[in-house]
Design brief:
The protein is an alpha/beta fold. It is built from 7 helices and 5 strands, in the order αβββααβαβααα. A 5-stranded mixed β-sheet has the order 3-2-1-4-5, sandwiched between helices.
Amino acid sequence: MIDRIKYILNRKSLKDERFSFLFDSEKYKDEVVAVDIESTGLNYKKDEILSIGAVKIKGNKILINESFEIFCKPKKKISEESIKIHHIRPCDIQNGIDIQEAILKLLDFIEGRAILGYYIKFDYEMISKYAKSLIGCKLPNKTIELSSMYYKRKKKSSAYDFIDLKFDTILKELDLPKLGKHDALNDAIMSAMMYLKLKRMPIYKGAFS
């Protein structure tokens, strides 16, 4: 009921009907989009997006030929601490596009599909921050959290078992290849691979929520 109310309020807030396709989830029941964002920091309220990577999944196939990669030029200078994490230097984004343009392109790419990712809440909030100022509402798409999918399928002897939820650990535990360096598009593709493998695995009956 609460989700339905949020959906209705979000739909009423849409000020640009060209983006009404974002609410058409029924059209994409068998499709999702893996999304990853590299940013200047981990505070979605004040930090900026530097790059976005995304790839579509249809059924059990990753549509590599339908991938999305874009670099954005931030308004503020990138800190040295930030560069150490994402390895994106000022010279890497000197030809980056305006973030508003990047978000509109991303919305066109996602359409009504659910979005999935590793700690997707951050990516969702970053995208929604810009979407709200551009089209009047937050991203209405359903989100799928990979770390939660993995946790529910990992066998545990008790509710106190430690489960390592680091990205690289999950990748290794699922026996999936690491695709070169961590960047937005590679991480999106690896997230898509995780999703397809986890989707085929049963939820552990003794799972502790």
